[in-house]
Design brief:
With about 290 residues, the protein is mainly α. It has 13 helices and no strands.
Length: about 290
């Protein structure tokens, strides 16, 4: 069996970009840790590019496409585009992350082929979610909210549900007896797990997003976002429904993957605690 390259060089950057993720990922088996670490760092880098508002939306979309293309082989202008994005960042972890982007892309291309395919697939979906974010909120005229539940479903799947699929497929690839349930069912649980965690983010950021005139939740009137606060309850109810999914997800993992269980269980429990507090607050307001 061919093992993935060493990921020790990624740890200092992971620690700067996300301390909580850095603390969790150290528990993962070495057979899957490189692919998950590089997938996370590339997703954070693409998110930073998408949020670099100094550049016009079209330029950012083209740069995101260039990052995806680079995962399959050398590109012509990605290094120049990344350099401009670096210059546009304030001092901090994101600036350092973009400085290392070309090396991260090269690292991703050094993964074993089966892991490369999974990283390419999940990053393609994440970038598609970031593209839709730019197109819907920055390029479309008078568009300040998602229109319906289907768009919310699409967004949460692309930016987070796809991640649940990714690490489920990666683990199933490395351990034939990884789960007590069918692979297709476990993938569905992983997808719902990821979507639920993204709904936590939407709930957490809802007041700030509303203040900025945008909503990732479908609203009745996009021109009256700040008045439409009743939709704040929606993600809380949806997240509570993910409680059983989280416990089923963890319960389906066999003992030989205990370190994977630690990594998946922690964010789920944080999400449930946040949702529970939010639900109590909303109940008290009525």
């Amino acid at each position: 069996m061919t093992f993935p390259p060493s990921d020790s060089g990624l740890f200092p950057l992971l620690k700067r970009v996300s301390r909580s993720f850095y603390l969790s990922i150290r528990f993962l088996p070495s057979r899957i840790r490189p692919a998950i670490a590089i997938g996370y760092l590339l997703a954070r880098a693409s998110d930073t590019i998408a949020d670099t508002n100094k550049f016009e939306p079209r330029y950012r979309l083209e740069t995101l496409d260039a990052v995806l293309t680079a995962l399959y082989g050398p590109t012509i202008d990605l290094a120049q585009r990344v350099s401009l994005c670096v210059d546009a960042q304030p001092q901090g972890a994101e600036k350092e992350l973009l400085k290392q982007l070309m090396s991260l892309v090269a690292y991703a291309r050094s993964l074993v082929p089966s892991h490369q395919v999974l990283v390419q697939d999940v990053l393609g979906k994440i970038v598609q979610g970031q593209r839709l974010d730019i197109e819907r909120f920055e390029m479309a005229e008078s568009r300040h909210a998602l229109r319906n539940a289907d768009e919310l479903e699409e967004y949460t799947y692309l930016v987070a549900g796809s991640v649940g699929e990714f690490w489920t497929r990666l683990c199933a690839l490395e351990w034939s007896s990884y789960s007590r349930v069918a692979k297709s069912e476990l993938e569905r649980l992983g997808m719902e797990f990821g979507k639920g965690l993204q709904l936590v983010n939407i709930l957490r950021d809802f007041p700030t997003d509303i203040a900025n005139g945008r909503s990732y939740l479908p609203v009745d009137d996009a021109h009256r976002l700040k008045e439409n606060v009743r939709c704040e309850d929606r993600p809380a109810r949806s997240l509570l429904a993910h409680d059983s999914l989280i416990h089923r997800r963890i319960g389906s993992i066999r003992g030989q993957a205990d370190r994977v269980e630690v990594w998946t269980y922690r964010p789920g429990k944080i999400a449930l605690r946040l949702t529970s507090r939010k639900s109590h607050v909303n109940t008290a307001r009525r």
